[in-house]
Design goal:
Two copies of one chain form a homodimer. By secondary structure, chain A is mainly α. Chain A is built from eight helices and two strands; from the N terminus they run H-H-H-E-E-H-H-H-H-H.
DNA sequence: ATATAAGAGGACCGGATAAGTCCTGATACT
DNA sequence: AGTATCAGGACTTATCCGGTCCTCTTATAT
């Protein structure tokens, strides 16, 4: 399915909310504004802070703030921050011995190119791009309520 | 991680082997040639046959044959055949009600564009491309033995 | 006609991995 | 000093994938 984790989805939601609010916002506040469960929001924010996509302010009146504007934030970075580096797990945890037995492992390094293509595609889209697109679509659905999985069916 | 399933990896190996052998090959034969466990090869072949990427011949002296040359087989199709349509599972099994509660779901349809970008990237690479690349790399590693996960580290 | 080789199609079990929750500690504002 | 907030980890649960096996159908060969 080539799917990315739900956490990544949440991360985008959270980041967009941060951009919308503008100033410093607390985790509970963002949870309230986005309907994402609060512990999950906190988790996501910690991860994003650890990777530098948001900056944190501790103490009373603390919270989180975007480190960069959405326009300077490629999706690839968000995915990499939450799910780890973008990689199509090919050839992992396979003992080299098992491979040498064959005349020539027909897979060595094959996926690098594919991986690179995906990486570039994701690097070229910023969160601002994603937000902009929905604005255009808002016309055909007043209260959109996440598209069920029309996305999936029409994907390919 | 944006990872694709191991089955997809196997599918590519199997398809390449099919192309290499040329004629009709049986599942056990391919398993033997690729070191992929036989039941798994059989499973992959069934899936590929069901989606028309390979054609099957039943009965004694039966086996599998490539339906198309590798050059006409984009990676996207293989992935779609094995893992299902390419989709970044966003907005799945979330009750619409929970979403309407919010002022406006900031996620509706957001991932479509990203999804499309990936789809295009994968549609542009054929299995022949993947095979060709490795041929070029064969020089720097005599018996390659699948690159561990250098792939992952360097990915982003 | 019968035996045999091969694929078709499903059911099943086990293991890995993500999702989500909670707890404890550190820090800074009031 | 007190309180609000983030930091960081541990833990539980659930889901999904990987892998195996069994049975049925089909077609060739003897």
């Amino acid at each position: 399915m080539l799917r990315l984790s739900k956490l990544t989805d949440y991360a985008v939601v959270v980041l967009v909310q941060l951009a919308r609010g503008g100033a410093v916002q607390t985790a509970p506040g963002i949870a309230c504004a986005t309907a994402v469960p609060e512990p999950t929001v906190a988790k996501v924010l910690k991860i994003l802070a650890a990777t530098g996509l948001v900056t944190s302010l501790r103490g009373a009146r603390g919270g989180y703030r975007l480190a960069r504007p959405l326009a300077a934030l490629p999706v690839a970075e968000v995915i990499a921050a939450v799910d780890g580096p973008i990689a199509l797990t090919a050839c992992v945890d396979v003992s080299p011995v098992a491979c040498e037995q064959q005349r020539s492992c027909p897979m060595s390094g094959r996926w690098l190119r594919v991986n690179e293509a995906i990486r570039e595609a994701l690097a070229g889209i910023t969160l601002a791009d994603m937000v902009g697109e929905t604005g255009a679509e808002a016309a055909r659905a007043a209260h959109p309520a996440r598209l069920p999985q029309m996305t999936i069916e029409e994907a390919l």
